[in-house]
Amino acid sequence: MGATPAGIKTRTFPQGGIHPPDLKLSADRAIVPAPVPSQVALLLGQHIGAPAKPVVGPGDKVLVGQMVAEASGFVSSPVHSSVSGTVLRLDDVPDVSGYRRPAIIVKVEGDEWMPSIDRSPGLCEEIAASPQEIVEAIKTSGIVGLGGATFPTHVKLSVGPGKNPPEHLLINGVECEPYLTADHRLMIEKAPEIVTGVRLLMAATGVRRAMIGIEVNKMDAVRSLQEAASRYPAIEVVPLQMHYPQGGERQLVKALIGREIPPPPQGLPIDVGAVVINVATVFAVYEAVQKKKPLIERVVTFTGKAFFSGGNFLVRLGTSVADLFSSVGGVPEDIGKIVCGGPMMGRAFADLDIPMTKGMSGLVLFSRAEARQGEITNCIRCGKCVAVCPLGLEPYLVAGLVERGDLERAEKERAVSCCECGCCDYICPANRPLLDYLKIGKARIMEAMKRRAKG
Ligand code: SF4
Ligand code: SF4
Question: Fewer beta carbons below 10 Å: N end or C end of the chain?
Fold first, then answer.
């Protein structure tokens, strides 16, 4: 664990967790815009929920920020063009999972923006929109959880039937995954905008107090936000201990307000009076409401120990990973693995033609030597995986049951509660592929649960 700065009182969650080296190699690299590519592929499903429905076709001219696909339900989100140019075709393209998904392909011509978007650099602090107008702007701007969950933000802000209105707005500035620094840079460089975004979300939800949780390896971000929030006593910036997976909603809620979300898969932060929003999402909310700018670009950390030209890039959505590599001098030699997201919860992929989407916070490169996996040996019943599981599961047991195909018992052992944090996998001295089994088991059990619910 990194040292807690002297005199700083910090909080954390009590159960399990690990302290991997943070490897924030790009923490001092300011955000720079990545070049606009010659073509983008705008995936229709960049969020949890129903994919968006195209409203443009081949030959149509589009501007930056123009809606090209509309939401197709309440739990859905529109997609906007990140470039200006001509729609070439609607096509299926590979995404990070390796499967082909529908997308709108746009050939870039110039860089012409929708006239409604305020591109001036000035801070717009005054809030003129009503709570309903704020939620509507968030919905129509295609804002989804940018921490990786990609849940449509307007849905999070709408209190469901039978639920009480929230009391706490909790802003997730934890970024506890090793390597990733996109949120960190945003908090340093855009603190006044983020504080305005927090005020917008407080107005939209009717919540009187907000907390921004940030781990102590980002004290410069803590100070930036404390200064930006100094005129707003209802917004508290809370330093947290470095403790993975503190960026998980369950762990963050416990660390900040001491409340326990009911067990997964049903339990949500709203059940304990909290709404949790990632800090990059808060910035996107600011831009959507105050600048009329839909979600067309995001900050992405591009990093790795053997990748010196890495940094934090403002990337137009739909840019291919290959184009991003070209803009930083090409694919480095000796790359063994590229992971989308952080190394703990991210997903390795092979096809560089995949387009960047709303949920991609980082690309982490590993050399062949770093990517090499240790030999898998028999479980020695050391119990380390049990000790680190933040959900109190017995990973060796659940993974073993899934391996043997005993899904009924794996369900009884709460396999669906697994948040896929990878702590058990990380700590296992026998290199057991625990996370793979847990993910497979969880997916199969959830399918069976859905089938049972349908009768
Ligand atoms: S991946 Fe799942 S089982 Fe493993 S430590 Fe995390 S929550 Fe527990
Ligand atoms: S950490 Fe690995 S070796 Fe130890 S009990 Fe868990 S699965 Fe077995």
Answer: C
